[in-house]
Amino acid sequence: MSTKENFRVLVVDDEPDIVEMLSYNLVREGYEVESAYDGEEAIRKAFSFKPNLILLDIMMPKKDGMQVCEELRATDEFAINKCIIVFLTARSEDYSHIAGLEAGADDYITKPIKPKVLLARIQTLLRRHKPDTEKKSPTNQLVFQNLIIDLDKRIVMKKDEIIKLPRKEFDLLVLLASKPEQVIHRDTIYSKVWGSDIIVGDRTIDVHIRKLREKIGEEHIETIKGVGYKFLG
User: Fold this and answer.
1) Are strands 107-110 and 221-224 parallel, antiparallel or unpaired?
2) Pairwise CA distance, residues 203 & 127, whole Å
3) pLDDT-derived band at 128, boundaries 50, 70, 90
4) What is the pLDDT of residue 131?
5) CATH superfamily to which 3-128 belongs
6) Which pLDDT does position 174 carry in this prediction?
7) Does domain 141-231 fall into CATH 3.40.50.12780?
């Protein structure tokens, strides 16, 4: 049995032809697939189907993809909050991709969609987000003076406040915080957080750093101009 049969994919688009094409190719590859045709249905299906990955159109009726993504990322249900979200967009403007990443998406694919490219991208994303089987520390936390990063619960505690971060923001924070006072180069961040097989815009890291600073405080992340970033505990 193909390991792909262990993964569930929710396809969300208001164009039936696109949903049919994507679903056909995914099922043929061995994925379990559900579909939705507007934003409200997408949220309902996400909670009932609990997908590992969502292919989510941006321009949709009732609720657009940005709203759907933000709602799913804000939920307390771990299976929903951690799922991979890939935006499907016909818009080539860089700002729409940045907005999607700010909303909590893991990646985006521009229409028209080529099935072989899509399937390769999905395999890469699912492979990179397999459960971590490496040996963990007894507490599995990164502890600093006024900040605790819980690697199991994937939450950040600042004093008495619990901060929940989207997947990429959390992964970026963990990468920086795991090597405090050490400069992490931009190329390393791209490779470790997004993967060398995924192409993202030049401003992607900057957007995520800005969002992190807004949530955990400006004092924790230092910009090393032209090089990368450094975590200050």
Assistant:
1) unpaired
2) 25
3) low
4) 47
5) Response regulator (3.40.50.2300)
6) 92
7) no
Residue 40 · residue 62 · CB < 8 Å: yes
What sign has the CA pseudo-torsion 78, 80, 85, 87? negative
For every residue of 118-160, DSSP letters joined together read HHHHHHHHHHHTSPP-S---SS-EEE-SSEEEETTTTEEEETT
Overall average pLDDT of the 89-100 stretch: 60
pLDDT on residue 198 = 58
The total number of residues written for the chain in this structure: 233
Residue ranges, comma separated, of all CATH 3.40.50.2300 domains in the chain are 3-128
Which pLDDT belongs to residue 24?
A: 94
- DSSP-assigned letters across all residues of 41-105: HHHHHHHHH--SEEEEESS-SSS-HHHHHHHHHH-S-HHHHTSEEEEEES---HHHHHHHHHTT-
Burial of 130 (0-12, 13-18, 19+ CB in 10 A): exposed
